[in-house]
């Protein structure tokens, strides 16, 4: 089972190794120069633990050919102890003390313990240290393991299918139906029965396989249960994988904050975080990195949790940022799958050291967790609402299909009312969904406005130029500082050589002593000169830093002045627009007041003209009444002769013409007035007849005209035929009829002539 990291040894193997090493000549208790009394006591306890393990029935069964441990260790305890170097001996003793005094070390020396775990746990101690780190050494569920193996799990087919894909190149697991595959199946089956909500998830087998490389299956089962419960792995492997989504959200924020250029490139290529980082969190890098590197990271994971996954993941991206920016999506996938694993063949120290240079803020991660929970809660509510609506639609479709199959529908009043209520509820829900959609659209518009308020490309380019200038100055300063340090080192070397040369001349003659003193003074002068140059360089460096800060402040002031200037211009424009609007408003008010005054004056003038017209109309009616009375009186008396009657008729026609002219004038004025009441009138009609009638017959007709005749009815004045013939030419010019309008009155009767 040749593994470069660790062999699947048990606590029994550890104890056996300790007992063997105790019996070896190099580490025997008779060698007090190598072992202290505490070390001897520790080894004695390990030997006692070995005896207890041998008496244990389960461990004895595992030693006598159990499927768990038979052939599981390639390196025997004797060979391991014989090949230990001095460094390994020190590490062995140190970790032995830690295991022996675990509770005290865990409480009082937690920081030192973390530092030791980061440097790596010796593979002989991994089994017991991992159990101690996760508190899995005395779990009650361990006694249920054998009973769980006798039960049947619904996930057995899935587990069997994926076992061949777990560590396919590892000696312990690559053969079909081998010991490794069998114990891996047992642990995964037992956990699927313990936690039926999670059951089995692809990827968890790699973690169980790593545990089985270090310890027996029962201990591996207990450790795996602890990892699932206390290390967030259970939430990662749930069917919803909500915890994995949270990890992706947090990791993407860290990339955006610490590697903004790479984040922009990922977004431009639609290269989502889950495409390369999901396996990192699900398998703790076991499927992505070489096994020795992944095991060292797993040591830290057992001590510190998922924080190491965030740190290592970001460190890998920092180390490969320049290459990834040059690649497209397929190229980046190939780089993650093939190039990055080979970069870590030299060992995990480099990437672990880089990982602890990454900024990790636990408070910020908690805040991101709350934000993600809020977002997911809203999404879940929307999904639940959508599912409910789809269910209702499906039920309605089924009802419609059922009703269509039954034939013409026969709805009762209750069913109609129920349908109406359902329709109202559906419309209300539709309105609510429309409101929610509108809110989302408003949010999108708000986000677009915020995007428009971001700095434009010119400001970004200017800031990039400033950053490049600052970096160039910093590089120049660092170069100068390195040169100064090199000069100081050269002078120190020269001084040491000089001291070495002059050390043997202290007992020489006075002249030689004088020369040496002069040389010493010369060297001290050179040293002071070098120190002065170093101070000068430091002052120049400070000057450069001050100039850089001054330039940055000047740029900030310039940008602030530009912004304030633009704001002032905008304020001036708005002030000018406000003044213009106020002037327009005052002008509109003034015009409105003038129009109101004019309209009032016109209304008064119209009312005055209306009163004048009414008075004139009354006078005309009075004159007409008087003329009709005079005409009636003249005809009754019979005093009209032919000549007098002709003259009288001419005078009457002249008066009628004048009255007609006045009436036309009044009608023209009335047409210009609005809402003028209409009048019926007295219609004076001149009838021209061709037949000759005698004067007597015309007199026999009689004239009946009331002196107070009301012009509601139409009166006709019939003239004598001879009089009509006399003035026929004038009457043809005047027209066939003449109509005079006067106000109506229903209280008078009509008389005819």
UniProtKB/TrEMBL annotation:
The gene is evi5b. Signal peptide: none annotated. Residues 120-305 form the Rab-GAP TBC domain. Keywords: Coiled coil, Phosphoprotein. PANTHER family: EVI5-LIKE PROTEIN ISOFORM X1, RAB GTPASE-ACTIVATING PROTEIN 1-LIKE. SUPFAM superfamilies: Ypt/Rab-GAP domain of gyp1p (SSF47923). Residues 1-37, 60-80 have a biased composition (Low complexity). Gene3D superfamilies: putative rabgap domain of human tbc1 domain family member 14 like domains, Ypt/Rab-GAP domain of gyp1p, domain 1, Ypt/Rab-GAP domain of gyp1p, domain 3. It comes from Pundamilia nyererei. Residues 742-753 have a biased composition (Polar residues). Residues 726-735 have a biased composition (Acidic residues). This is Ecotropic viral integration site 5 protein homolog isoform X2. Residues 379-441, 474-676 form a coiled coil. GO terms for molecular function: GTPase activator activity; small GTPase binding. The keyword Ligase does not apply. Residues 1-39, 54-80, 693-753 are annotated as: Disordered. SMART domains: TBC (SM00164). The lineage of its organism: Eukaryota, Metazoa, Chordata, Craniata, Vertebrata.
